[in-house]
From TrEMBL:
Residues 50-435 form the Amidohydrolase-related domain. Belongs to the metallo-dependent hydrolases superfamily. Hydantoinase/dihydropyrimidinase family. InterPro entries: Amidohydro-rel (IPR006680), Hydantoinase/dihydroPyrase (IPR011778), Metal-dep_hydrolase_composite (IPR011059), Metal_Hydrolase (IPR032466), Metallo-dep_Hydrolases_sf (IPR050378). Its cofactor is Zn(2+). This is D-hydantoinase/dihydropyrimidinase. Homotetramer. Pfam families: Amidohydro_1. Keywords: Hydrolase, Metal-binding, Zinc. The modification N6-carboxylysine is found at residue 150.
């Protein structure tokens, strides 16, 4: 047992002084003023600290086979780094090979994830369509704790699905009470622009953003919103990076459509000037999709989070080291796409969000944890500080500062996209399932201690009543 004493509890709803007692079962046993420490209970002094629900990163890719290689953070190193930054749960992606059984792929990912140090859930990607996929979506939702399916509108010839697959899959998910996630970029347009740029001799990383301009994301977002709207299905768009996609989501919500948008910490603070770096490796390190954007897009993303039109923050944590990034030194289309971020999301959001006045402390908790727990139907077990919830907490020092660097981070990757950034707002302690796993610089993450979190279907916004109200039947 562990008593967190003397802190200020901040949730998505309220702020107030309270002690938090973490029970031996890993759940919160009591929240209140001046709690007694039971015999044998450890006491952690939270004086001057904020006690918040641990962060949830709904978008990570640990040890993911992609573009001819495998992302370098595995489920242990990646989730351990998350704990060091105050993130106590991730939702990663099962990526079945095209034509393969999605159920077998889920089982394979469950095996890989046994080594996780923090709790985790799994979205399952749909990369093709046939009767087996239809049937196995039913099994995954009924027996495997999966309530979300992912679709890539980009990566033509690899993970991309067309509108026909989107229609079938979103319709099937709706029937099962599951939510569809979408990577919105027009993959045909990207492939066309890539070929055109290569033909013109543009081979460096600069070609990456040129082949994926904002319109490519805006069009795909509008298209998938229209498809979900036809079916009366809710929709979750991952890594929204442009004002165009933000506007598409905002307009759909104003029409009554249930569309959610996720923003990456990286897109909020890094702009497209990184592709001008004279060092080709450094430019390649920023190759991810969607790419970094001209600065004015950041304003739209922050406004989206503050206004509630965009609900969650993530990192799309997907690490590739220098030798992996170098595979694309003569052809930008071969640079493995992805950037690290899991360890720094919370600090970046606090420093650039709360300290600048863009977000309140409550909004910070909402966009780093609670909204994700609600959308993926694991609230109040996750994303809350309440009796019976999992004792996943971050003890936050709002005044402490640190300088982000690959030299000191715990992520298994040889660079950091936030290198040199000084941030104020630091995770001093992290508690995961009642265990004190990050203690003022001491990482005590344990391989395999993370549990798989089953996520039930039919979240409150997927009830039959709401669906009928929307579809009008
Ligand atoms: O560049 C990225 N984002 N890599 C990971 C795969 C994806 O698109 O999410
Ligand atoms: Zn993506
Ligand atoms: Zn613009
Ligand atoms: Zn991703």
């Amino acid at each position: 047992m562990l008593l967190v004493r003397g802190g200020t509890v901040v949730t998505a709803e309220t702020t107030g002084r309270a002690d938090v007692l973490c029970g031996a079962d890993g759940r919160i046993a009591a929240v209140g003023l001046d709690l007694e420490a039971p015999v044998g209970c450890a006491v952690l002094d939270a004086g001057g600290l904020l006690v918040m629900p641990g962060g949830i990163d709904p978008h990570t890719h640990m040890e993911m086979p992609f573009m001819g290689t495998v992302s370098s953070d595995d489920f242990y190193t990646g989730t351990a780094a998350g704990l060091a930054g105050g993130t106590t749960m991730v939702i990663d992606f099962v990526i079945p090979e095209r034509g393969a059984s999605i159920l077998k792929a889920w089982k394979h990912w469950r095996e890989k994830a046994q080594k996780a140090a923090s709790d985790y859930g799994l979205h399952v990607a749909i990369t093709h369509w046939d009767d087996t996929v239809h049937a196995e979506m039913g099994i995954l939702t009924r027996d495997c704790g999966v309530n979300s399916f992912k679709h890539f509108m980009a990566y033509k010839g690899a993970l991309m699905v067309d509108d026909g697959v989107l229609l079938r899959s979103i319709s099937r998910a709706l029937e099962l009470g599951a939510l569809c996630n979408v990577h919105a970029e027009n993959g045909d347009a990207v492939a066309y622009l890539q070929a055109d740029l290569l033909r013109k001799g543009v081979t460096g990383a600069k070609g990456h953003p040129l082949s994926r301009p904002p319109e490519v994301e805006g069009e795909a977002a509008q298209r998938v919103i229209a498809i979900a709207g036809l079916l009366g299905a809710p929709l979750y768009i991952v890594h929204v990076s442009t004002e165009e996609a933000t506007r598409a989501i905002t307009e759909a919500r104003a029409r009554g459509q249930r569309v959610y948008g996720e923003v990456l910490a990286q897109h909020l603070v890094i702009d497209d000037s990184v592709y001008d770096d004279p060092d080709p490796l450094r430019a390649a390190q920023y190759v991810m999709s969607p790419p970094f954007r001209p600065r004015h897009h950041q304003k739209a993303l922050w406004a989206g989070l503050a206004s509630g039109q965009l609900q969650t923050t993530a990192t799309d944590h997907c690490c590739f080291c220098a030798p992996q990034k170098s595979a694309g030194q003569d052809d930008f289309t071969r640079i493995p796409n992805g950037t690290p971020g899991i360890e720094d999301r919370m600090s970046v959001l606090w420093h650039h969000g709360v300290r600048t006045g863009r977000l309140t402390m409550q909004e910070f908790v909402a966009v780093t944890s609670t909204n994700t727990a609600k959308i993926f139907n694991i609230h109040p077990r996750k994303g809350s500080v309440s009796v019976g919830a999992d004792a996943d907490l971050v003890l936050w020092d709002p005044d402490a500062s640190r300088t982000i660097s690959a030299r000191t981070h715990h992520q298994n990757v040889d660079y950091n996209v936030f290198e040199g950034m000084e941030v104020t707002g630091v995770a001093r302690h992290t508690i995961s399932g009642g265990r004190h796993v990050w203690a003022d610089g001491d990482l005590r993450a344990v391989r395999g201690e993370g549990r798989y979190v089953e996520r039930p279907c039919f979240s409150p916004d997927m009830t039959a009543e709401l669906r009928r109200a929307w579809v009008g039947v």
